Hints:
By secondary structure, the chain is of the alpha/beta class. It is 23% helix and 25% strand. It has two domains: 34-100, Ubiquitin-like (UB roll), CATH 3.10.20.310; 103-231, Rossmann fold, CATH 3.40.50.10960. It has six helices and twelve strands. The termini are far apart.
Amino acid sequence: xxxxxxxxxxKKIIIVFAIILFCGLIFFLYRSLxxxxxxxxxxxxxxxxxILEETNLLEYPYLYQVSANDIKDKLTxxxxxxxVKVSKSISGKVVIEIEENKILYQDTxxxxxxxxxxxxSLENSILGIPTMMNDCSEVRExxxxxxxxxxxxxxxxxxxxxxxxxxxxxxxxxFYMTDxxxxxxxxxxxxLINSYNEVYPTLEGKKGILYLDxxxxxxxxxxxxxxxxxxx
Length: 232
C-alpha cells in the first residue's frame, strides 16, 4: 500500500503563530501601561488627595491593576459619597466622577447631617453651613427631605435653624438669616423661602421677622432680640 503523504499547510500555521504572537504582544504592552493622570470631578468637601488615597491611586499603579468596580466599592463606603462613575483609557487616563451627599446643617452634637439623613464628624469646620440650635429629632427625617428643596444660594444665607413647634403646627421652624432677619416657616411651605432674595429688597433695609408659616407678612424686629418670643 502506498502511504499518502499529508501536506502540511504552512500558511495556516504561520497565520495562527502570528495571531498568538500579536495577542501576546498586546497583552505584554497592556501589562506595562501605567496610570499617567487621574481626574477627579464633582467633589466639593472631599479633596482630590483624599479620594486618591482611598482608591490607592496616589502612586499611579499599572493600568491593569485599576478596577472601576473596586474604586466604586471603596468610595461608596464613605458617607459623603452618594454615587461614583469611573472610566479609564489605554492612554493612562482615569476619570472619577463623584456625586456627593449634601451637608445640610450641623446638629447640636457638632456632627454634620447629610442629605441621606446620615451623620458625620469632620475635623475642620465647614463655612456656610447652618447650625441647628435645638433638638428636632421628632421631625428630623422630614426636615432633611424638605431642606433639599431650598436653593443652594438661599441655604448660604441661613446661619442658624431653630425648631419652634406650636400646638397647631409641629413642623414649624425659625431660620436666622445672615442679614439679621428672622424667617418663620413650616415644612409644608418651606419652598417659599426660595423667593427670599426677591422679598429682601422690598424690606428697604429694615430688620425684622418674615412670617412664611402663616401668610407672607413682615414685622419690624424689637430692639432687644431676646424679646422675639413675644412676637410669636
